[in-house]
Amino acid sequence: MAEETIFSKIIRREIPADILYQDELVTAFRDITPQAPTHILIIPNHLIPTANDIKASDEKALGRMMSVAAKLAQEEGIAEDGYRLIMNCNQHGGQEVFHIHMHLVGGHQLGRMLSPPA
Ligand code: 5GP
């Protein structure tokens, strides 16, 4: 049984977050440590720890995450200039919160996609 993270508490509104969108499948909120002028996290409401755990039965929520990303990019005014959607997985991917989340980042020119390991 996967362990809940702080994101489950955000979904249930037990701890504060700047929630921009929520429906029966997904929740989107601003990242607490933004890496760009727009930095939003889009997550499924049910716990999927990592990208490795995604099943066919999750496809509806995963698809919704994509369409909500597109909608929020429009609302943030960054759609035309462009942005990046990122999902980190496990240690090599730099994942820190084990409830999958798509980062929507943009609002200025982003750097190269991959930087060398620190
Ligand atoms: P990861 O490295 O797992 O892909 O990204 C986790 C993201 O979650 C980080 O960008 C981090 O700033 C964000 N984050 C971690 N804890 C919280 C929190 O309590 N609230 C919000 N809004 N974002 C968080």
What brief labels describe this structure?
HIT-like, HIT family, subunit A, 118 residues, binds guanosine-5'-monophosphate, 3 helices, single chain, alpha+beta, globular
> Ranges with pLDDT <50 over ≥5 residues?
none
Strand order of the largest sheet: 1-2-3-5-4
Bound molecules: guanosine-5'-monophosphate
How far apart are the first and last residues' alpha carbons, in Å? 33 Å
Helical content stands at 10-25%
Total of domains: 1
Largest sheet: 5 strands, antiparallel
Using the coordinates shown, work out and report the CATH topology. HIT family, subunit A
Q: Estimate the strand proportion.
A: 15-25%
Element string (H = helix, E = strand) = HEEEHEHE
Highest CATH level, the class: Alpha Beta
What structural class do you assign from the helix and strand content?
alpha+beta
Notes on the protein architecture:
The protein has 118 residues and is an alpha+beta fold. The protein has one domain: HIT-like (HIT family, subunit A, 2-Layer Sandwich), CATH 3.30.428.10. The protein has helices spanning 6-11, 59-76, 90-93; strands at residues 19-22, 26-30, 38-44, 83-86, 102-106. Strands 1-2-3-5-4 form a 5-stranded antiparallel beta sheet. The protein is globular and about 40 Å long. The model has no long low-confidence stretch (mean pLDDT 97).
